[in-house]
Write a structure and sequence with these properties.
- Chain A is built from 10 helices and no strands.
- Chain A is an all-alpha fold.
- Chain A folds into 2 domains: 127 residues, Up-down Bundle (Four Helix Bundle (Hemerythrin (Met), subunit A)), CATH 1.20.120; 40 residues.
- Chain B is mainly α and 333 residues long.
- Chain B contains 12 helices and no strands.
- In chain B, helix 1 packs parallel to helix 11.
- Chain B is globular, with a radius of gyration of 21 Å.
- Chain B starts with a helix and ends in an 8-residue tail after the last helix.
- Classes of the chains: A mainly alpha (210), B mainly alpha (333).
């Protein structure tokens, strides 16, 4: 049991420190790296409480895909410069009240959740899901996700799909004058379409790209 | 006292796995170069040791004694961490590979997800190395590599779903045992082909070695690395390739199972079957390197997103419908 406690405190210490470092780090790319470290230690905590499926999905989705895109954006946009401007410019003070408001809301929500957890434990027991010790948690998760919660599951899938299409529509711009390679065009090209005999008048020249 | 015993026992097991893997990685570099040379009617490395077998050891020694140069304008901490991450990730994934029914370091419930997660983390070694070098070629190589690996991971994930549908478990040993009657390569042959090609892209092997395309990017993300740090990138890359081969043989070629369930074949111990299959896949990898030219970047992206992803998604639907219709879904546990 001691080993369990040691590992729990190790992972939660790393998680908290790296979460603080995400906001404190000067370099934005470093912040993203700390965020990744945070994700990894949280997935370790998931695995420690026996939710190995959630832990692995956390690694695959957040660390393997989302954080890579974060890193992409941060590296490409050179956010470091912008950030310095925000904090030094005179208008930076307008961001602070909004930020404070958002963090206050999140803080109160957390208090409500944790308070409910501590003082109203019967709320947790109200769910009808049977958690058995013998099945793996992948099986038990699949059993409820695709039966009792199928509509919510499908709905969240639809929301993600709409968000994805929205992002594509927002950023899509049709570029004119771009020559695209088309395999079918290349393969089906024949001699009679490609070669053309043209009578060229003397001193007139010929227009090729008609 | 007892916990100390367990600790030493585990360390002994880990070393017993890691040292053969590392030696094999060194040997596999030699094999790769030999196969490459034979295809092109050259001799390949044949001077150091019998058949040139010790060439990789000689190379590794050379790297160890070379100076490590850290560029002055690089981000030093990340620059040093990057090859270590590549190497570590390539090695820790071996913990879940089953060499026989009992010979597996960590027989976890979500083995295949673990493998997938670790291989998706592999991109960080490359991004960190490319960014920390603070130089244009490594950076371009890293960006290319990140986009490429993320794209091909998607189709590998969907292919894994196909196998899971047939096996009914995320545990690697259960997946192997589910192939006792028929290897998954037969019913899922198109998926095996797509997996093989995606594995080439995932490990930055030719014809998808754009992150280190020497004609455009010098050596991609490795440009600024030297000495032992370069060697770690290099070993990590080959360990990753071997891992992909192991993953392919566990998912499709029946892992440690012999081809036919007869007594004559069961005389060969189970781990050897897995090793044969890994070697077979690796020789295919090496042959591909020798015989195909490099892809253009837009072709690579097109292949990943517009060909492989729809194909493997459709195949998921086909597999699921087939299993459901003929009532072949694996039994509930």
């Amino acid at each position: 049991m001691i080993a369990h406690a040691v590992f729990f405190y190790l992972f939660s210490f790393i998680a908290i420190v790296s979460a603080i470092m995400v906001t404190v780090a000067r370099n934005t790319v470093h912040s993203v790296f700390f965020l990744i470290l945070d994700f990894i230690s949280i997935s370790c905590l998931f695995i420690m409480i026996g939710a190995e499926f959630l832990g692995m999905i956390m690694l695959i989705v957040y660390v393997g895909a989302v954080a890579v895109l974060f890193l992409f954006v941060v590296m490409m946009l050179n956010v470091a410069q912008q950030k310095n401007q925000w904090f030094s410019a005179s208008k930076s003070s307008s961001h602070i009240p909004i930020g404070l408001l958002v963090s206050l809301i999140i803080f109160f929500e957390l208090i409500i959740v944790i308070g409910g957890w501590k003082y109203k434990p019967d709320l947790l027991n109200s769910s009808t899901i049977v958690i058995s010790k013998t099945t793996t948690n992948t099986h038990s998760l699949g059993n409820v996700l695709y039966t009792d919660y199928i509509h919510l599951f499908q709905l969240s899938g639809m929301i993600l799909l709409v968000a994805m299409i929205g992002a594509i529509v927002l950023t899509f711009r049709e570029r004119v004058g771009l020559k695209r390679q088309s395999y079918i065009k290349q393969i089906s090209r024949e001699k009679k379409d490609g070669v053309q005999l043209v009578e060229v008048e003397s001193k007139q020249g010929v227009k090729i790209d008609a | 006292m007892n916990s100390l015993y367990i600790l030493f026992d585990e360390i002994y097991k880990i070393l017993f796995l890691l040292i053969p893997v590392l030696v094999t990685v060194a040997m596999i570099v030699w094999l790769d170069r030999r196969v490459w040379a034979f295809v092109q009617k050259r001799r390949g490395p044949n001077v150091v040791g019998p058949f040139g077998l010790l060439q990789s050891i000689a190379d590794a020694l050379k790297y160890i004694f070379k100076e490590i140069i850290i560029p002055a304008s690089s981000n030093k901490v990340i620059f040093i961490i990057a090859p270590i991450i590549t190497m570590t990730l390539a090695l820790i994934a071996w913990a879940v590979i089953p060499f026989s029914e009992n010979l597996v370091l960590a027989d976890i419930n979500v083995g295949i997800l673990y493998l997938f997660a670790i291989s998706s983390l592999g991109v960080y070694g490359i991004i960190m190395g490319g960014w920390a070098s603070n130089s244009k070629y490594p950076f371009l190589g890293a960006i290319r590599s990140a986009a490429q690996m993320v794209s091909y991971e998607v189709s590998i994930g969907v292919i894994i779903i196909n196998v899971l549908l047939c096996a009914g478990s995320l545990n690697l040993n259960d997946i192997v045992l589910a192939q006792q009657n028929m290897w998954f390569v037969l019913p899922l042959f198109p998926m095996f082909v797509i997996f093989f090609i995606s594995a080439l892209a995932e490990t930055n092997r030719p014809p998808f070695d754009l992150p280190e395309a020497e004609a455009e990017l010098v050596a991609g993300y490795q440009t600024e690395y030297s000495g032992m740090m370069y060697a770690m990138f290099w070993l990590g890359e080959y360990a990753n390739i071997l891992l992909m081969c192991a993953m392919g043989s566990v998912l499709f070629l029946g892992g440690w199972l012999p081809p036919i369930d007869i007594n004559a074949l069961s005389f060969i111990p189970a781990p050897f079957w897995l090793i044969f299959k890994i070697l077979f896949l690796f020789i295919l990898f090496a042959l591909v390197k020798a015989i195909v030219p490099r892809y253009r970047y837009d072709q690579l992206m097109k292949l990943g997103w517009k060909v492989f992803l729809p194909l493997s998604l459709i195949w998921v639907v086909i597999t699921a419908s087939y299993l459901l219709y003929f009532d072949l879904l694996p039994a509930q546990i």
